[in-house]
Write a structure and sequence with these properties.
Layout (H helix, E strand, L loop, with lengths): L11 H38 L4 H15 L9 H18 L3 H9 L6 H12 L1 H23 L1 H24 L6 H24 L7 H20 L6
Length: 237
């Protein structure tokens, strides 16, 4: 069997060049999957659950955006960052694809071209679903910006838990204590599941609430898991 080092796969200059592109592609696919999941949740609640439908979703967007103003500081304007994130996502999905301009043309009383006339019937038939997706994308962008704003807190908390865990590991090894690969791996995988669950709740939950409570509880659990992970790290460091 040929050696992996003899191939063009992830080695040398090629690996260093393509790795960022590959990870950027993975992040883009994950982002699009989350946005699609947010659309599905919004469609279900707008058309099946909420009596006021689209108005309720618009109200949630307004409330979430207003709530970011209470998080602003002299060092970081979260409201502006959230609005920018919402606009970037909206432009990337509905601006570049031409869906936004298409709706503007259809709303105009001017005569349409033959292709626009054909597409117009499909657009009109799915107008409400498209509006839900547009508002849902902006809501997703606002909440994503809030999550990014809390990443420094998460990183600092994780670093402190990691440091404390490594200190406990050194003390236990000096006293002849045993290491545990099972605890290490379970704590590591639970952290991934915890971060995924928190992100899903904050990005997809179809209600307007202050997510700081969810984030505070999540960071607390993350710190405990990170401490156990590094306290029982099995390899030499």
């Amino acid at each position: 069997m040929a050696s992996r080092n003899a191939t063009f796969y992830e080695t040398g200059v090629s690996g260093a060049f393509f790795a960022p592109l590959r990870w950027s592609f993975y992040v883009l696919i994950l982002l699009l999957a989350l946005i699609l999941a947010a659309w599905i949740v919004d469609w279900i609640f707008v058309f099946r659950v909420w009596p006021d439908g689209l108005g309720r979703l618009q109200a949630i967007l307004t409330e979430d955006l207003a709530r970011t103003a209470r998080l602003d500081s002299e060092y970081f304007d979260i409201t502006r960052f959230a609005m920018h994130a919402a606009n970037v996502l909206y432009e990337g999905i509905f601006g570049i694809t031409g869906i936004h301009d298409m709706g503007a043309r259809f709303a105009d009383a001017a005569a349409l071209s033959i292709p626009d006339t054909i597409v117009r019937s499909t657009y009109v038939a799915n107008y409400q679903a498209i509006q839900v997706a547009m508002i849902g994308t902006q809501l997703f962008g606002v909440r994503l910006a809030v999550l990014f704003a809390y990443w420094p807190l998460i990183v600092v908390a994780y670093a402190m838990a990691m440091t404390d865990g490594l200190v406990q590991r050194c003390l236990r090894r000096a006293g002849g204590g045993n290491e545990s690969a099972n605890i290490y791996h379970r704590a590591k995988y639970l952290q991934v599941a915890l971060l995924a669950s928190i992100s899903a709740l904050c990005l997809l939950l179809p209600i307007s609430i202050d997510f700081r409570g969810i984030l505070l509880l999540g960071v607390t659990l993350l710190v405990l898991l990170a401490r156990y992970q590094w306290a029982y790290y099995k390899k030499h460091v």
